[in-house]
């Protein structure tokens, strides 16, 4: 019995499946447009941009735990400035990110993630009906 055709066929199918994302990307052309979120009106967030881009959910979860479990309401940033630990009143205030839709939602939609922040919080930038 000669199994060479089956082995070669299996290898070809395996390689086709493994490299499918590469072929799909090449066939589709340019990758999706990377969103450009609206930057803070004050020019700087509570931490540097790189930190916030990579670890903002960790920071927000730490804030949640500090406020809800330890009654700590002030955050001292790496640069020594103090901020209120509040998603609605610090991050989404008129002096920082003035629109959830133009800041949070752009990147979260692009990354296809659904954070649960607004299961409890009210979007302060939402239009009043």
Keywords for this structure?
two-stranded antiparallel ribbon, mainly alpha, 129 residues, 50% helix
List the helices and strands and how they pair.
Elements: H1 4-28, H2 49-70, E1 74-76, E2 82-84, H3 87-91, H4 104-111, H5 117-120
Antiparallel strand pairs: 1-2
H/E series: HHEEHHH
Largest sheet: 2 strands, antiparallel
- Count of individual helical segments: 5
Strand segment tally:
2
Principal-axis shape equals elongated
Please tell me how large the radius of gyration is.
23 Å
* DSSP helix fraction: 40-55%
Note down, in words, how this protein is organized.
The protein is mainly alpha-helical and 129 residues long. The protein has a domain at 49-120. 50% of the residues lie in helices and 5% in strands. The protein is built from 5 helices and 2 strands. It has helices spanning 4-28, 49-70, 87-91, 104-111, 117-120, and strands at 74-76, 82-84. A two-stranded antiparallel sheet has the order 1-2. A hairpin with a 5-residue loop joins strand 1 (74-76) and strand 2 (82-84). The model has no long low-confidence stretch (mean pLDDT 86).
Q: What's the short version?
A:
With 129 residues, this protein is mostly helical. It has five helices and two strands; from the N terminus they run ααββααα.
């Amino acid at each position: 019995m000669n199994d060479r055709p089956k082995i070669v066929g299996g290898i070809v199918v395996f390689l086709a499946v493994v490299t499918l994302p590469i072929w799909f990307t090449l066939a589709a052309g340019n990758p999706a447009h990377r969103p450009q979120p609206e930057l803070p009106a004050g020019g700087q967030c509570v931490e540097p941009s790189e930190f916030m881009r990579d670890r903002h959910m960790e920071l927000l979860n730490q804030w949640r735990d500090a406020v809800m479990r330890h009654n700590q309401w002030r955050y001292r940033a790496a640069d020594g400035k103090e901020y209120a630990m509040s998603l609605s009143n610090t991050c989404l205030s008129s002096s920082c990110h003035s629109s959830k839709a133009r800041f949070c939602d752009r990147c979260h939609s692009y990354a296809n993630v659904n954070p649960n922040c607004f299961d409890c919080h009210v979007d302060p930038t939402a239009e009043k009906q």
